[in-house]
Design brief:
This protein is an alpha+beta fold and about 80 residues long. The protein is about 20% helix and about 25% strand. It has a four-stranded mixed β-sheet.
Length: about 80
């Protein structure tokens, strides 16, 4: 298991006290498993978390894909624009 820093964006960033969070993610975890651990670490309902996706610095991960063992991770809300 490794402790990973996950940047928060959009409405998720506005509803959490910090712009990022650190979560223990098991080796070979899927994006779905990582999202479940993120929800557990927040310990409360956060608007937009249900439809959020996990992304690397290069792309959005599908829920069944493995989380890379290294590199930046971000939690993107269902609607994220700029």
């Amino acid at each position: 298991m490794s402790l990973r820093k996950i940047a928060l964006y959009g409405g998720l960033r506005e509803t959490c006290p910090q712009p990022s969070l650190e979560v223990s993610i098991p080796a070979n975890a899927t994006a779905q498993e990582a999202l479940r651990r993120i929800a557990q670490s927040l310990g409360r309902r956060v608007p937009g978390l249900k439809g959020a996706v996990l992304a690397t610095s290069r792309r959005v991960l599908r829920r069944f894909e493995r989380v890379p063992p290294k590199g930046a991770l971000a939690l993107l809300p269902p609607v994220c624009g700029g």
